[in-house]
Sequence to fold (1071 residues):
Amino acid sequence: MFTQVRLLRHKLHTMSLHMSRIMRPDDANVAGRVHGGTALRMIEEAGVIASTRHCNSQPGHENCVSALVRVERTDFLSPMLIGEVAHVSASVTYTAHHSLEVQAVVTAENLLNGNKRLTNKASLWYVPLSVKSPDKVLPVPPMLYGCKEEEEEGRIRYETQKHDRSQQQQCPSFIFSPTTDPEMHTVACSQSSLIHLVGPSDCAIHGFVQGGVTMKLMDEVAGIVAVRHCKSNVVTACVDAMNFHRKLKLGTLLSVTGRLTFTSQRSMEVEVAVEADTLVDRVIGNGSTMVAENTEGSQRFCAVSAYFTLISLSSDGKPKPVPQLKLETEDEKKRFEEGKARYLQSKAKREAQKGSA
Amino acid sequence: MFTQVRLLRHKLHTMSLHMSRIMRPDDANVAGRVHGGTALRMIEEAGVIASTRHCNSQPGHENCVSALVRVERTDFLSPMLIGEVAHVSASVTYTAHHSLEVQAVVTAENLLNGNKRLTNKASLWYVPLSVKSPDKVLPVPPMLYGCKEEEEEGRIRYETQKHDRSQQQQCPSFIFSPTTDPEMHTVACSQSSLIHLVGPSDCAIHGFVQGGVTMKLMDEVAGIVAVRHCKSNVVTACVDAMNFHRKLKLGTLLSVTGRLTFTSQRSMEVEVAVEADTLVDRVIGNGSTMVAENTEGSQRFCAVSAYFTLISLSSDGKPKPVPQLKLETEDEKKRFEEGKARYLQSKAKREAQKGSA
Amino acid sequence: MFTQVRLLRHKLHTMSLHMSRIMRPDDANVAGRVHGGTALRMIEEAGVIASTRHCNSQPGHENCVSALVRVERTDFLSPMLIGEVAHVSASVTYTAHHSLEVQAVVTAENLLNGNKRLTNKASLWYVPLSVKSPDKVLPVPPMLYGCKEEEEEGRIRYETQKHDRSQQQQCPSFIFSPTTDPEMHTVACSQSSLIHLVGPSDCAIHGFVQGGVTMKLMDEVAGIVAVRHCKSNVVTACVDAMNFHRKLKLGTLLSVTGRLTFTSQRSMEVEVAVEADTLVDRVIGNGSTMVAENTEGSQRFCAVSAYFTLISLSSDGKPKPVPQLKLETEDEKKRFEEGKARYLQSKAKREAQKGSA
Fold:
């Protein structure tokens, strides 16, 4: 038995990963609170390292890098501040035949008084892609579980996310109303869009964008939509599950668009969609001699979409009432009702958890 | 006389500034060519240092920081590549009562073969603002000229730009056509927009955005519009004169929008406008204790606009024909004719320069 | 003789390099003091340019890029602040057969009052590697010295560092005590670790990490360890000599670990080690077509280690007493004694210099 425990410890040591970074002014909004997107990006970087390392751990394996396919719903419990240290711990927690789960825990440490607090937990799913032919998904080496229950619970999480991914609806169509001077607190008034051309640093570990880069851009747009609506500082409170359907390559143009769907007394729900456009298709060679050629014509597709929930903060950092969203079209009313249903469901869940605790 | 020369040398030494930096993958497009915006940002950083230093050089002066108010037309003669070293030299070349001119020269150095080539020259105008009350423009200490002619030529440049700034037209109104599926090669098909929330690193030297940050964002949008139109790699060939009318503070939301106005056989002209929105107005304190309060309500205004000319490149880096722009509205036809006039004028000027050389 | 002086001036002009940059909020800690690591990174960038330029200056040479192999002990005399301009001047000062020395001087300029002050000097050793086959070290073209003494002094520095490099002991073994709730002011209480995945921008000039990137990460960890121990702001006062044994490639995972070894009344010594893990071993080509080939299986090795000395600062920026380090193990006691010996030796040296000045 001792041997097994020792083995397990060794296993845990090699398979878990710890990352730390001091939060800098550029990681935060004007009120000094670190963007949820910064945490999402760190979590995903830890996840890609932990999962890639696991998938390459077998002797004689074919080289692979892992790509993010799904992030489960993530709640931000407490915002981090500039100067604090963010710690991310990530471990492989379940292995299926062709995908694996990484769980990550983020804590914020105030170096001056030594206080540490949990800021969020996340659960991510990756698939290992062959380095030689990135369209080929490789088998995942099985992990060693501490006990039967651990494996069984993982299997349930695996089945649940698999079902959810197969259900996944289409990307929302974002036809912006052509209003020049939209009325205050309407959807048209706060809708926002940014474009980002995928650069080399977005693709550090393999030839395609790390999922965390995309999530950070989405959080940025969600934040801008929310600030435009409530004219105060905001923080991201939670992000719904996201499925990443396709790899995004260097040179792809991402259009990240957000619009308000629902407001409660103290929260805003923003729907964010990422449309990808493979402008210039193929890039060959190294930094100084790269040539690009668009052989197949450009392709546009929806890469990912998600709901972000944000809250408004007063200047002393306390939650603040949110102006009610003015609905103008039938579509907006429909989306508002759907948002309300999601809001009530997650509220009920939170209360059930409190009750049981 | 020797003494005067020595003094002058001393003067030139203290007033000129040299900056170098290795070009990184993130500075370049997918074909490895450094963005014009990277050069514009370096030039402006050198300009703000040289001009701020000059304005604080008088004993007993009131402390000031200089803010960019105008950049003259800039031609990019030769693109830089990743791994090359960019050198910027900037000197104060004319001083008026309340503004001063900085001229900058950019060269690219290939470390492997030692070749250096001129990539562009730029001329920038700054005004010194009081550190205590940033709305107050301070007097500029007079510079020492090498000879009478030098001063006289500077005075002519000063009068010319002053006239141009007073003529400056209003910002273009960018009402995007609400087309969902625009036809290829129309204005609607390539128009693009990005948003950027002004962060602390954009405002290092004073409380407001360095002009170079804004120019870099504009070049980024211009490049995306051009790639969307011609589906190949592009490089910035020149940027028209730009006037910066107002200071942009930390927390301001910039919407940078670009649309094609004109295409020739081998070039595209993109009009880029920056709209500023002071979402959250007042920021007090430093990075860790900043609080934000919107006391006056948000304000939207046009911060700057300019025409960027870009050329399309084939995979071997040679200029490539550009698809002709399809015009759909009367406005688009009018702008096309205006663009053509600018194109022919600048072509005539280039040929006159060749003839005289 | 005049001709020789002129030649020398020309030589100095071509071989020296000047870099300037405004210090931004992200370069600094929460108290606005620029990290020693920012200066180290700028110095090394200037060094790699100056040395690569020199090694390619011979007609008919084989193309090479230089890689950092050693940095001599560096003292930080005065911290820089946000908004100040950092100037780095670097020149080649000695050439051996297969390595060369670059000396760099860093000054900080306050643009408002024109004051300039020396912040540090550094001495770096590089080897030229062939661009075609990066494992091949090329010969260094000899430099022209001003006088015999200059050459002789350089030769002594060369011999000294060569001896030191041959002596270099193994990387420290960092077995972190598995204590969950360590006692205040123990080594276990402040030990820290961060990981960094080497991205394209870390490797601009050749396929491997610029030494300055690694040094900046090490300084960051040293700072975190020190703040955790003394619960106040800190600045880096000096860094011991470092030897870089192996090239670190794109895609390598760096684990940077630091622990306190010694405290005096007013200073802390932190030992920092960088372990490299070639997750996916070989990366060829650019971002979008990178293929990675792990020919040898992943490898872990110690890339570099060094001692950083930091001092604690009170809120008004004055040095502050440091809590004494609590020693728990025999190893810790041994390292403390070694640290004390280094501290006393460097103190004696400083006093000898004062005495002779």
